[in-house]
Amino acid sequence: MIYSEEVALNVAEYLLQIKAIKLEPSNPFTWSSGWKSPIYCDNRVTLSYPQVRTYIRQQMVKAIEDRFEKPQTIAGVATGGIAHGVLVAQELGVSFVYVRPESKKHGLKNQIEGHLQHRNNVVVVEDLVSTGKSSLAVVDVLRAEGCDVKSMAAIFNYGFEETELLFKKHKVELITLCDYSHLIRKALDLDYIKQEQLDVLMQWRKDPAGWGK
Fold it and tell me: Which of 13, 41, 103, 127 has its CA 20 to 30 A from that of 135?
């Protein structure tokens, strides 16, 4: 679920302007999963632009305050959710930790970095949600440590139906600032894509795993 229509379109425009989003229907990218995709999203780029970074921080804080019970801890997903998670935690005045995909092989072998001062009402911050599996794996890690995790806030969500079902199964409410539908709408309005390219982008959205094969 997006936080608001206005915010979704504003974030979409920012992401397109700074080229955090690349749309290449005729020259698809290959994701780490092996999927072919006409879109590539790199929200780390937002950190290099103070105006964009500030807007994302402000709107994510508002989304968390409006939709969730105020968290005691923000947990960032490594690596993309770390910087944005820190900014959000700072503005909310709460503690922060981040969670690795797996435990380190050396030192203290931590998977959760930072001190979990409060385990009640932890909100996860993510930069990007695609299938949702890696994001929800972080929820599982935190819950295994006794944390109460019911909510996640993200910058962008591809909006796959399977992802929505997975979040419901895990009983995690996901709020995002922008999603695929609003991005494509804004890209069309700003002439980043042509009408004839729209069909390709929407076909991919329906069957991302099978598209391009």
Answer: 13
CA 59/CA 11 separation, integer angstroms? 10
Alpha helices per DSSP H over 42-144:
50-67, 80-92, 133-144
Cβ neighbours of residue 113 closer than 8 Å, sequence gap 6 or more: 78, 97, 98, 99, 100
pLDDT tens, 45-83? 999 999 999 999 999 999 999 999 999 999 999 999 999
CATH of the domain at 46: 3.40.50.2020
pLDDT in tens, 94-104: 999 999 998 76
A 10 A CB-CB count for 119 gives 15
187 within some domain: yes
Domain count, the chain: 1
d(CA 5, CA 136): 25
Q: What is the pLDDT of residues 134-182, one digit of tens each?
A: 999 999 999 999 999 999 999 999 999 999 999 999 999 999 999 999 9
Structure tokens at 2: 């997006």
In angstroms, the CA 182 to CA 188 distance is: 10
Question: φ, ψ for residue 114 (rounded to 5)?
Answer: 110, 175
On whether residue 144 sits in a domain, the answer given is yes
Domain extent at residue 134: 5-206
Pairing between β-strand 149-157 and β-strand 122-129 as defined by DSSP bridges = parallel
pTM for the structure as a whole: 0.95
